[in-house]
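User: Earlier you gave me the apo prediction for this protein. Now I'd like the version with fe (ii) ion bound, so I can compare the two side by side. Same sequence as before, with the ligand SMILES added.
Assistant: Got it. Here's the input I'm using:
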Amino acid sequence: MAISRFSYANVRVMDLQKAINHYTNVVGLRLVEADDKRAYFQADECQDHHCVVATLSDRAGIEHVGFKVNDPSDLVEAAEAAAEHGLKVVDIPVGEIAGQGPGVMITLPSTHNMLLFYQIDKIGYANGMLNPTPGVSKNKIGAKVTHLDHTLLSCENAEPTVEFLTKVFDFSLTEKVVDPGGNIIAAFMSCTNTMHDLALGPGPDGAFHHMAFGMHSRGEVLEGADILKEDDVPALEYGVSRHGIAGVTTIYFHDPSGNRNEFFNGAYQAAGKPFVVPPIIWDVENFPRGAFYYEAAVPEGFFDAVT
Ligand SMILES: [Fe+2]
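And here is the structure of the complex with fe (ii) ion:
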């Protein structure tokens, strides 16, 4: 199955104008288009129409995650494979998501919705497509995020979703946290050459833990923390920290609806083949060090406070 990349997160927000302010002036995304129901955003170093869709709702959380496939025929193959696996599959027509062709929505065992699509409009890089200026513009507003990198979704039992994504959709399992019986508590999976495009952590089925925006340097994560402070955006009490898992420099914060975001830098490359390149394993006693390497403790509510 040829899924080429994690493309976007469609998050529910309760105030569209506040979401637009947050994802542009704080996170540093470009506002691509908006109506009274949805707003579409893209990071500076991506050409696709959107990497974040904010959908007006009466509650926060994740509407669906979008993944691009390599060929239109992959949509048919994916739909058939998911249906054979007993998963709900719904065709999504053109126009449902702006700038995007038809797709198939698959409800994963974790109850999260995954939308696969092939066609997406191009808006180009922030610095243009003809004789562009390299680097970050002096007029840049918000944090210096380069792209939406990954999302972490919550579920009570990760095993069936890991099995489906690795065995049917050919995701690589790059790291996992296991209990003494070997059962998976958290899983980090990739469909590209980075260590995670989609991760699963403990929590209620269908919940949204966070989406993460990549940056070029650890220094830019610190600059992002300064912007959070200046704009009174609530951040995790640890401030800037480091994950043992993935090894990245990180800071978490929330959008105005309570959806958790992350600025991060430093994920390693992990081009692996499913069941050929084995995952890094963390036993559960070391999970706090894996989650927060410096503090070796997980803040209260970190896995419970989800949307
Ligand atoms: Fe993350």
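For your comparison, keep in mind: The first helix runs from residue 16 to 26.
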